[in-house]
Design goal:
heterodimer, A: Glutamine Phosphoribosylpyrophosphate, subunit 1, domain 1, Alpha-Beta Plaits, five-stranded antiparallel beta sheet, 10 helices, 18 strands, B: alpha/beta, TIM Barrel, two-stranded antiparallel sheet, 15 helices, 22 strands
Chain lengths: 380, 511
């Protein structure tokens, strides 16, 4: 019998859920925890997309790029294979196992482990391969293409995605998860998050109002945005700023985050001279990399080493909370505190400031997002 | 003059003697010889209505509002092809045998592309920003930008290489070049005072810089044009330098200041003898190719020890995109594009009215072309000719300009009525004149305040609009064609603009 008093489990909301979990000792843990984190924020999704990114998945193929794909049929798979053979050696390939009965229709999910023929520019080759597959091979979509990592996503509730890919049986040292409430585009498998290029994966709650400007900037830099999602620009901007720029590894994430959400000029004007010079130069040079509009994001990357970043727009119009477990082994990010508390009640948690990134990089002290990036660095 | 030479007046000035108090102020103010005052007469205001240009000076200064100015009620026999405008043109050329000159900008009734564009706003999925309560930033930098920063790590310390010189503007709006001589000393000074107060720039025009104006050098773009008038070390010590190749009102044409306008003031400023004609050739005679332009850019960079941005101004013409690309590759730090509606002190009317293309199309095409070539980030794109309102400014930014520029709008702020008599030097409002007495009609304090108000008001409009689009910094709006929509009827135009038709949704997903 229908209950007239029980609150419905779902209601219309404009939101997305994001969560991240990073074992700072690089120990692999089951996906059970991240699954619980994202599931508890069910109010933030509407069943039109969810996904996970996981790092540390393939100890046997650590050095190979894992091209993980969704495919409409075997014909598309063969087309991708033919294409890959031109530029790479396929070391291994396998079907990604999924659970039957979760969703009526679903694509073929496949992964190739490859070495590029051109070793010197391997990252650029893989970047171009991913873009080519997504733009030009009908029936194929590349979910991820990094080393020792993969993205699992689709057009369902996050909990169903977890079941579908059997996330709790997968072990990784760094996880991110997204549950989607799409507003402008229809939900579709490729449009779900994480959105990934090379070893970077971005999950995003928000809407990028600077999309047109960012897209033009990326076109100049050799990135074509054709996937109907504004999250795409964040992934490509991050790839340009972090990898392609060649900035020093120690500060590259801070520079990238400052470019994505630079300090206000009124704050820059009051900075000490050295920091002012840096902030001004970053803001002027990468002016079209600034991401405007409401966003909170979790970026996971293996470049230059495993790193998890939480970041928000300058007014922090979407929620983001960070936490570290009492034993300091696990770093968490989530839209809501409930997601963190549901898996770990011992944490020390904090609210990062608007527009200030939280950066947890393996073996480095965590930058907590409570002051300007680059503030603690020796700069001139 | 034979009777047949006569052309019927364009305007009719009427005095309402029920209201008129015979003060004669109208006659004092009229500079076109329309009104004379004779106290002895029964009706003391004597009107030669054929000379009236509808500048409104007499009407505005009449304390009893006794003056009305109408279109002259002698009709031309209607003809759809031979409009009165065409007939007048033939009469005038048959009478004089000369090239007709015109002032201000192209006044023909071409469609205005700006009027076919509307912009987007936030609803639900992305919150609008309240610009009155939260920061919305309009600060803009004029100059060359690197693709990426130069950073070195030395003993654990990170060193940042200096980036190229950039001029900071508080708002993405500057005043376009107008030379002393084409406008009065007071109008010129008021514009300099206003831009220095606001924190933006004003162009010298090609007329050099008077020593009185040296203190404003931090807010001056010095123009190096084909006549090279007034180019001196002091002149080059400005915020930015601009090589003028072309002007929107007269693409391919130079300029001439007749000797009678070269007064002592102009002689001092331009560095030419009193009373000599100041002729600016059509091309720069040391620039016959893009390589030559590159040489001049390099010479100016060298002369100023790479301390100031050097830009190039071109008129919006068909091939503007590849030309702009060549200019970027010739090491210009900024490019100024002047549309076919741009103003002028004087230009052959046939050129003013027909040459060039709308700046909206030029900017969109340059922005997209430079983007496709991967060099858009290097330069600052400045565009005008003409921006009539803050909405035109906002649209030109979204179409790809980093900075908008105004000329005529600044003159209108100082009282100009757009009567298009700039060529005559008789400007009754004291703006477009070299006559020192007429020039005094501009009150410096008042005109400066009006200009500052215009800048503040357009900037406030820009803040508000960016806020409603959920954008809190203007750099996220430059080239953001995604937030514009086309409501005209010409798909080809929309395609060139790179703007979707109204009703088509945003091609991206919010999350």
């Amino acid at each position: 019998m229908t209950s007239f008093t029980e609150l419905p489990l779902t209601r219309d909301h404009d939101a997305c859920g994001i969560a991240g979990l990073f074992n700072l000792d690089r120990k692999v843990i089951s996906g059970k925890k991240i699954k619980e984190m994202i599931e508890v924020m069910k109010e933030r999704e509407n069943g039109l997309g969810g996904g996970f990114a996981a790092y540390g998945l393939f100890p046997r193929f650590k050095e190979q790029y894992c091209i993980q794909l969704i495919l409409d049929d075997f014909e598309a798979k063969e087309k991708v294979e033919e294409f890959l053979k031109d530029y790479t050696d396929i070391i291994e390939e396998e079907k990604v196992l999924v659970k039957e009965g979760i969703v009526k229709e679903y694509p073929l999910i496949w992964r190739f482990f490859v070495d590029t023929n051109d070793r010197e520019n391997a990252n650029d080759v893989i970047k171009d391969i991913m873009m080519y597959i997504n733009c030009s091979i009908r029936g194929a979509f590349c979910l991820s293409g990094g080393k020792d990592m993969a993205v699992f996503k689709g057009n369902m509730w996050a909990a169903e995605i977890a079941e579908f890919y059997q996330i709790d049986k997968i072990k990784a040292y760094m996880w991110s998860a997204h549950s989607r409430f799409p507003t402008n585009t229809p939900g579709w498998w490729g449009g779900a998050h994480p959105f990934s290029i090379l070893g970077h994966a971005v999950i995003h709650n928000g809407e990028i109002t600077s999309y047109g400007t960012n897209m033009e900037y990326l076109k100049e830099l050799g990135y074509e945005c054709k996937l109907l999602t504004d999250t795409e620009v964040l992934a490509y901007l991050f790839d340009f700023l972090v990898r392609k720029s060649g900035y020093p590894p120690k500060i590259v994430h801070q520079i990238a985050c400052m470019a994505l959400a630079p300090p206000y000029w009124r704050d820059i004007d009051r900075m000490p001279p050295e920091l002012k010079k840096w902030a001004t130069a970053i803001r002027i040079t990468h002016r079209k990399a600034m991401a405007n509009g409401p966003f909170s994001i979790v970026i996971t990357t293996d470049f230059p080493k495993p790193t998890m970043i939480g970041h928000s727009d300058r007014k922090k119009l979407r929620p983001l909370i960070a936490a570290i477990s009492e034993d300091e082994s696990t770093f968490y990010l989530a839209s809501e505190l409930s997601a963190i508390h549901t898996v770990d009640s011992t944490t020390n948690f904090w609210q990062p400031d608007p527009g200030k990134p939280v950066i947890a990089s393996l073996g480095e002290e965590i930058i907590k997002g409570t002051k300007e990036p680059l503030g603690g660095i020796s700069i001139k | 003059m034979r009777a047949q030479d006569k052309v019927m007046p364009r305007f009719k000035v009427e005095i309402d003697y029920d209201e008129c108090n015979s003060c004669g102020r109208c006659a004092v103010n009229c500079t076109f010889g329309v009104i004379e005052f004779d106290r002895e007469q029964d009706k003391p205001i004597i009107v030669d209505t054929g000379k009236c240009v509808a500048c409104q000076r007499c009407a505005v200064f009449c304390p009893t509002n006794a003056i009305s100015i109408k279109e002259y009620p002698v009709t031309y026999a209607p003809h759809g092809n031979w409009t009165p405008w065409h007939r007048r043109g033939v009469y005038e050329q048959a009478r004089t045998g000369a090239v007709l000159l015109a002032g201000m900008g192209n006044d023909r009734n071409y469609p205005v592309v700006f009027d076919s564009l509307v912009w987007d706003a936030c609803q639900v999925t992305n919150p609008a920003i309240d610009a009155l309560r939260e920061p919305v930033e309009t600060r803009t930098f004029l100059g060359r930008k690197p693709k990426k920063l130069g950073i070195r790590e030395i003993n654990g310390k990170f060193e940042l290489e200096d980036i190229y010189p950039n001029v900071m503007l508080s708002t993405p709006l500057i005043i376009d070049h107008m030379s002393l001589g084409s406008i009065s000393y007071n109008a010129y000074t008021a514009m300099l005072r206003a831009v220095s107060e606001v924190g933006t720039l004003f162009g010298t025009g090609e007329g050099g810089l008077h020593p009185d104006h040296y203190p404003f050098r931090k807010n001056i773009i010095s123009e190096v044009a084909s006549g090279r008038f007034g180019v001196s070390p002091d002149y080059l010590d400005a915020a930015a330098l601009e090589i003028k190749i072309g002007q929107g009102a007269k693409p391919g044409h130079g300029g001439q200041l007749p000797g009678e306008k070269v007064t002592q003031l102009i002689s001092d400023t331009r560095g030419i003898p009193l009373g000599t004609d100041a002729l600016s050739p059509n091309p720069q005679h040391d620039i016959y190719s893009i390589e030559d332009l590159k040489t001049l850019i390099a010479a100016l960079h060298e002369a100023t020890e790479y301390r100031v941005p050097v830009g190039v101004k071109i008129a919006a013409v068909n091939n503007v995109a590849p030309i702009a690309s060549g200019i970027v590759r010739a090491d210009a730090d900024f490019i100024t594009i002047d549309g076919f509606r741009g103003g002028t002190g004087a230009a052959p009317r046939v050129i003013r009215d027909n040459a060039g293309i709308p700046v909206e199309l030029a900017v969109a095409s340059v922005d997209q072309h430079l983007t496709n070539e991967g060099i858009r980030h290097k330069v600052t794109l400045v565009a005008g000719g003409s921006l009539r309102s803050s909405s035109d400014l906002i649209k030109i930014l979204a179409l790809g300009a980093d900075v908008g520029m105004v000329g005529t709008a600044a003159l209108i702020a100082m009282g100009c009525r757009v009567c298009q008599q700039c060529t005559t030097g008789k400007c009754a409002w004291g703006i477009a004149t070299g006559d020192p007495i007429l020039g005094k009609r501009i009150d410096l304090e008042w005109a400066t305040r009006r200009l500052i108000n215009l800048f503040c008001s357009w900037t406030a409009d820009l803040d508000e609009v960016l806020g409603t689009m959920g954008i809190d910094a203007v750099e996220s709006f430059v080239g953001n064609r995604d937030r514009l929509r086309y409501i005209g009827s010409n798909p080809e135009e929309a395609k060139i603009l790179g703007v979707k038709h109204a009703g088509s949704r945003i091609g991206i997903g919010g999350e």
